[in-house]
Amino acid sequence: MNRIILLSILFLFSGIIYAQTKIRPGIRLGFNSANISNTTLDNKIGLNAAVFADFRFSRFYALQPEIMYSRQGGKSNIRTNQDLDIDYLSVGVVNKFFVAPNQGLHLILGPSLDFDFENNLINVINDSNDSDITPFDLSFFFGIGYEFDFGLILEARYKQGLLDIDLFDEDFESEFYSGEGNTLNNVFQFGVAYKFDLR
Question: What is the tens place of the pLDDT at every residue in 151-167?
């Protein structure tokens, strides 16, 4: 009897949570200011774009899985060299913490797994790519945003790569590599997003 009561309470509680959770899909478009640590490369401006689904669990918290395209790399300050372009497809889990109930100001925090378009795992397995860039990166990001009642969102993030992208071998002379430390992605991201209300 106690099990039946407990299961009934859990079922009712789950139904209440499900009913209160608002799910809204959305799109985002913005730009990056990207660089790679321990190199002589300058900041490079690139595009970012994403699709996401916003799960609003409470007045203070929302979970937002997203898939993002992000152009990163660095800008060469030597005329004879080309800029470094790295195109990533990122799968991120955004945690949004609202500062106050019924207010749009929120903090952003989460991880992402970034896959390099050009130097992907298929090309690595087939040995058909000459790029020295690691096929993927694990990143951590944080930022701030403001969400308007009608669905418009303004966001600013800082994204820090956690894995050495192996672009420059320490034993290989390069005009880009400073010779000390790991080469990590560093990106400032700015974007405008819109959430659709499907009700």
Answer: 999 999 999 999 988 76
Q: Is 7 exposed, middle or buried (0-12, 13-18, 19+ CB in 10 A)?
A: exposed
pLDDT of residue 193: 97
| 3-state SS record for 74-135 | EECCCCCCCCEEEEEEEEEEEEEEECCCCCCEEEEEEEEEEEECCCCHHHHHHCCCCCCCCC
Residue ranges per domain, the chain? 24-195
Q: Tell the CATH topology of 24-195.
A: Porin (2.40.160)
Distance CA 169, CA 102 (A): 51
Check the CA dihedral 112-66-116-30 and report its sign. negative
CA distance 142 to 172: 34
Question: Region 114-141: what's the mean pLDDT?
Answer: 72
Residue 182 near residue 45, CB atoms below 8 Å: no
pLDDT score recorded for residue 31: 97
SS3 167: coil
**pLDDT, tens digit, 9 for 90 and up, residues 170-184:** 544 456 666 677 889
Q: What is the pLDDT of residue 61?
A: 93
List residues bridging with 72 in a β-sheet.
Answer: 86
User: What is the number of alpha carbons within 13 Å of residue 166 lying toward its C-beta?
Assistant: 10
C-alpha Rg value of the chain to the nearest Å: 21
CB neighbourhood size of 192 (10 A): 12
